[in-house]
Amino acid sequence: MVSVGTVVWLSSELMFFAGLFAMYFTLRSTSGEMWAEGSEKLNVPFALINTIILVSSSVTCQFGVFAAERLQPRRTGGLFSIGRWGMVEWFLLTFVLGGIFVAVQAYEYAKLVSEGVSLSSDAYGSAFYITTGFHGLHVLGGLIAFLLIIGRAYAARRFGHFEATSAIVTSYYWHFVDVVWIGLFIIIYFLK
Description:
Layout (H helix, E strand, L loop, with lengths): L1 H29 L1 H9 L3 H26 L17 H28 L8 H33 L5 H30 L2
Helix pairs in contact: 1-5, 1-6, 3-4, 3-6, 4-5, 5-6
């Protein structure tokens, strides 16, 4: 039931982001010169590295899911025996990568604001910050979810299917957030 509920909820989130994409394309179609000026200020290689970090976090998240499915909450070997990591270690690494993504995005925001691109500067700034900002809020929500799942793994007397299911549905959300970012990244940074 939890998995089905999560998929239904993610469907509503998909509609939310579809609305943001529609807003972005509508504003872009009416303000072509403004878009050309604004998009010149984007640092595409920097954003590409940040995208690779976020996509990597999806890989580490999935390794955490594999460990949760084996009902292995924590590592069974040394810290550097990555092959023996449990869900907690993989989710902590995912959390760190997600945190780096948010920090780099905040740095990018500060850099753009210093160059005159802000939420209130023009339609380009509004569209850029609204779409990427809502995505960033979703990433923060995922990071909070990872902390809750990790805390639950430590609090549980016995790590069972209930805890594993919670980890799995959290991964659904995280993969969804990553896929949305890939779409945003292609549209904002590459589509001319």
